[in-house]
Design a protein that fits this description.
The complex is a heterodimer.
Chain A lengths: L15 H10 L2 H19 L5 H21 L10 H4 L3 H5 L3 H8 L1 H23 L1 H30 L10 E8 L5 E2 L3 H8 L5 E16 L2 E10 L3 H5 L5 E2 L14 E4 L1 H8 L9 E4 L2 E8 L14 E3 L16 E6 L5 H18 L6 E7 H41 L1 H9 L4 H37 L14 H27 L10 H7 L2 H32 L9 E7 L8 H17 L3 E7 L10 E6 L12 E7 L1 H7 L3 E4 L12 E5 H7 L9 E4 L8 E9 L14 E5 H4 L3 E8 L6 H13 L7 E4 H54 L4 H29 L1 H5 L10 H28 L2 H7 L1
Parallel strand pairs in A: 4-9, 6-8, 15-20, 17-19
Antiparallel strand pairs in A: 1-2, 1-10, 1-11, 3-4, 3-7, 3-10, 5-8, 6-9, 7-8, 12-21, 12-22, 13-21, 14-15, 14-18, 16-19, 17-20, 18-19
Chain B lengths: L5 H13 L5 H11 L6 H13 L3 E8 L7 E7 L1 H18 L3 H12 L1
Antiparallel strand pairs in B: 1-2
Helix pairs in contact in B: 1-2
The chains are: A alpha+beta, B alpha+beta.
Chain lengths: ~900, ~110
Amino acid sequence: MTPQASRPKAEPALPWLLHQLVRLFVPAADRAVVMGDMLEMWTRRFGSRPRGITAYGWLVREVLSTAVAFSLSRFEPLHTRNRQTISSDGVSSALPGSGRRARRSSFSWYAALSRVFLDLRFALRRLTRRPGESLLAVAILATGLGATSAIFSVVRGVLLEPIDLPESEQLVVLWTTDEASGVSYNNSGPNLLDWQQRDDLFAGLFPYLSETVVISRDGKRERAEIARIGADAFAVVGLPMAAGRGFTAAEEGAGRPPTVVLDHAFWQRRFGGARDVLGTLLSVDGEPREVIGVAAAGFGLPQLGRRALYLPFDQPLDARGRDQVWLGAAARLQPDVGLERAQAALDSLHGSLIEAHPELAGSRVTLRSLHEDLVREVRAPLEALLAGAVFVLLLACANVANLLLARLVRRRGELAVRRALGGSRGRIVGQLVSENTLLAGVAAVAALGLVGLSRKLLAFAEPLGVPRLELVRLDLPVALFTVALALGAVMLLAGVPLTLISRTGVLSASRGADARRNRGVLPQILVVAQVALAAALLFGAGLLGRSLLGLVTMDPGFQPARVIAADLQLPSDAFADRESRREFWARLEASARDLPGVESAGVTLFPPLREMRVNYAVRLGGRDVPPVGQEPAADLGVATAGSFETLGIPLLAGRLFAAGDADRPPQVVINQAMADQLWQDGSPIGAQLGVLFSRDEPPVWHEVIGVVGNVKQTGLDAPDRSFFYLDMMQRAQPLASLLVRGRSTSDASFETAIAELVRTLDPRIPTPQLEALEGARQRSMARPRFIALAVSCLAGVALLIAFGGVFGVLAHQVEDCRGEIGIRMSLGARRGAVVGGLLGRSLISIAMGALIGLAMVMALARQFETFLFGVRATDPLTLLTIGLVLVVASLAASALPALRAVSVSPATALRKE
Amino acid sequence: MKRLGDFEQLVLFAILRLDAQAYGVSIRLEIEARANRSVSAGALYTTLGRLERRGLVESTIGTSTAGRGGHPRKYYQLRPAGARALHAITTQLGAMSQGQLPALARLAERGER
C-alpha cells in the first residue's frame, strides 16, 4: 500500500515493535495515514534525527494512545462502511494506488472479513476479561479434542493407511476356517493347488511357510527366521528384484538344484549389499544353496514379519492330505475381481470340494485383504477407544456449553443494551459465535500439542501387539481432523447463543426471578448429558477393569515364576537321526538340572502362552469310528516328564513319562479337558488313543498313561482345549525349548549359563533365544491391560469434567436462588431441609444421566462383550458399584454449593435480591 | 441536529481555519497553538472518525509525502452539515457570551482566592 521501496533513506521510520503495535491495532485503511501523522509529528517535535528517551517516550505514548482509541472505536472504525455513501463521489478517484481501488471494488468482502476480524478481536477481549473461566473452557475442550485426535492419529496410521506394496488393495490372504469356532487355520496343499487353477479370480497365488533354520557361512552359525514361498510370490507382491532373479517353477519340488533368495535387509546387514554374493553358496541347515537373487526392499508379507531368507518349496504341495493345514496362502486378485466376488466363487468351489472330500466338512475358506487380515484384531479395540474419546469430546462440549450459558446470562445486560441500540440479532449472534470460534481455535492448538505428547505414550503401546505403530504420525491429515473437530465443537456450542437469542427473554435487562427463568432447562439437559456420557464410559471402564482383574488373578494352569524357556533348533545335518536327537535332549535336560541355582528342568515342544497350535484328529480305541469330518480333535504337545514338574502342571491321575519309556510302545498323557470331553464315563487311564498324523495312513495308537491339569497354552483368554502330550523321548523333535526353573527370583547369570551349556554340549547348535515365562504371561495380558487402562483414563477425565459440570450448574442455581433461600431461612427453614432440597433437585438430573448412560452400555453390550473376559456386559455387581460411585461423586460435587448457600446469613442473601 | 462536544468544536474550527491543509498533524498543532491545550493522538482520531461518521466532515487521501515515512496524508473538509452545526453552536455561544467575558474573569479570579 505504501511505496516503501521508493522511500528515500532520510525518511523517518517507526521502530519495529511500535510499527507492529500500530499494525495490530489500527485497521489497514487508516494505518498509513496514522503512521504518517505520527512520524511527521515526531519529526516536527524532535527534529529530523530524533534521539533520546524523551523522543522515544513521546512516541510510545503516542502509539499507545492511538491503539487504545482504535480499540475502543472497534465497532465503528474510521473507515466506516457507509463512508462511501456519505462522502462525495470524488473521493474514490482521488485515491492513489491501484491496490486501494481494487480493494474498494470488492468492498463487501473486505467489510465482511474485517468484521469477522473485529469480532474475533472483541471476543479476545471478552474472553481475557475472565481469564480463569476461559482457560478452564479451553482446557476442557482441548482435553476432548486432544484425546480424540490422538486416538484418531493411531487409527489413521494403523487402520486407514494402506499397505506399502503396489496396488495392495488387490492383495489377499486365504485361510481355512473352522466353521464351528470361527478360528482360522492355514491351508492344505491340495486345496491350494485347486485355488491356483482359478486364474479367473487370481492373477497369482502362492503358498508360504515360516521356518527357523541354522545358517552357516565362513564357519559362523546363526539362527534365522526364514520363509518358504511359492515361485509366484515375487510376481504377486509386485516389486522388482533388487538383484538377480526370483524362483521359477523349475526350482520347486524335490531333487532340484538348491537355491536361496536373500531378504534385502539381511543382504545389507550380512553382506553389506555386495552384488558379488550372487552365485555364491550359503549353507542352510547344512545344505549348501546357491544365492540366485536378492528380494526388493520392502518385499514380504506383513503376516510373515521380517525374514532373512526365502527358500523354494522342496516337496510337492500335495504330499500331505486335504485336512492337513500347514500352508499360508497369499494371492493377488485379478484387477476386475472384487473381494466379495472372489469369496463367493471360493465358497462354491469349497462346497463342491466338501462333497468330494468329506474330511473337509465343517470348514470354509476365508478371504481377507492383506490389510484387514493384519489389523482386524486391533480394529475393534481402536474403534472402541475412538468412540470413547468422542464421548469425552461431546462431554467437554456439553460442559463448555454450560459455562458459556452462564456467562451469557451474566452478560444479558450488555446484550440487551446492544440490542436496544440497534444491534441486529445476527450481529450479536455472530459476535457470540466468534467467541466460541476463538475458544475452539485455541483449544485445537492446545489439542495438537497434546497429540504430540501422546506420541511419546505410543512407545508404551509398542509391545502390546498393535501392528504398524510406526505409521502413526502427527501430520496434516491429523491436524485437519483436529481443526474439523474444533469446527464441529463450535457448531455445537453455537447452539447455546442461538437458543438463547431466539428467546427474547434473555435480551431484556431483567434481573432476579426473571433471569432465573430465562436460564431454563438447558443447563439441566446439559448436566444430564454429561452425567450420561461419563456414566457410559465409567461403566465401560468398570467392566474392562473387572475383566482384567479376572485375567490377572486367573490360574494359567502352570507356575510361570522363575521359569526361563530357551528355544533350540537342532541343525538337521548334525542331528539327522532320531536317536542322536533323543540322546541330545536327554543330556541337555540332565545337565541343565545340574546347573547351580537350578531347581528343575525339562524339555517341551511349545512352552505355554506361545499362541502356537498343532491340531490332529484322534480316535478312541474300542469305539466306533465316527464319520470323516466329525472326529474329535485335540492339540499336540511333546514333553519330557521334567517339563511338567518345571512348569508346575499337576498330575491328576496315572503317571508321567518315565525313564526307559522310550523303547516301549507309544504313550500319551492327556489334559483334564480332554478326559472330560472324551471319557465322560470312567477313567481314561489305559485306554488307547489313535492320532491321525496323516489321512492317508492309519492312526498311530498310544496308550493313555496319565491325566494332567489344563494349561493356558495359546493365551490367557483362550478356552481350555483338549490337549495331549507325547513323550519327547519317543518323538525326539529337532525343535524344542529347554525349560529351567531357578531357585531364586532373579538370576541373570543363569541365562549365560544356559547358553554356555548348549555350546559345550554341541557347538554346532546356534545360541538359543531365552524368554522368562512371567514375561510371556505379562505380554499375554498386555492388550486387555492397555485397553482397560486407556478406557479408564478416558473415564477418569470424563468423570472429572462431569463432576465440574454438576458443580458449576448447581453453583449457578444456588446463586440464582440466594434470595429465595434467604427468605426461607429467615422464615425458619432448617438448614438440612434447604440443603436436602437443593441436593434432591440435582440428584434427579444425576440419576437420569446415570440411567441413560446405563441404557447406552446395554445397547452396546453385544459389541462391548468382545473385549470382556469372564464377565458379561450386563454384570449387575459392576454396574451397581459404578452407578453408586457416580451418584456419590456427583452428590459430593453438589454438596459444596448447597452448603455454601445456607452458610450465608439470610440478611446478606436478601440484600442481593 | 446533534449536539457538538467542546473538543469536536475545536476540531471543526481547526479544519475551518486550515482550509485545504487540514490533516491529522496540522489540526493537532493548530489546536495546541491557538487553544493552548495538548491534544492526544487517540482523542483526535476518535473525534475525527466520529465527525466523519456523522457526516459533518469528509476526507480525501492525499499523495505520498516526504518527511512522514512516505505515508500519505488524509485531508479533512467541512461538509455543509458540519458547517451548519458549528455555525449554530457558535452563534448561540456568541449571543450568550456577548459582554460577559470581563464578569467571567472577575468571578474566576475571586474563586482562586
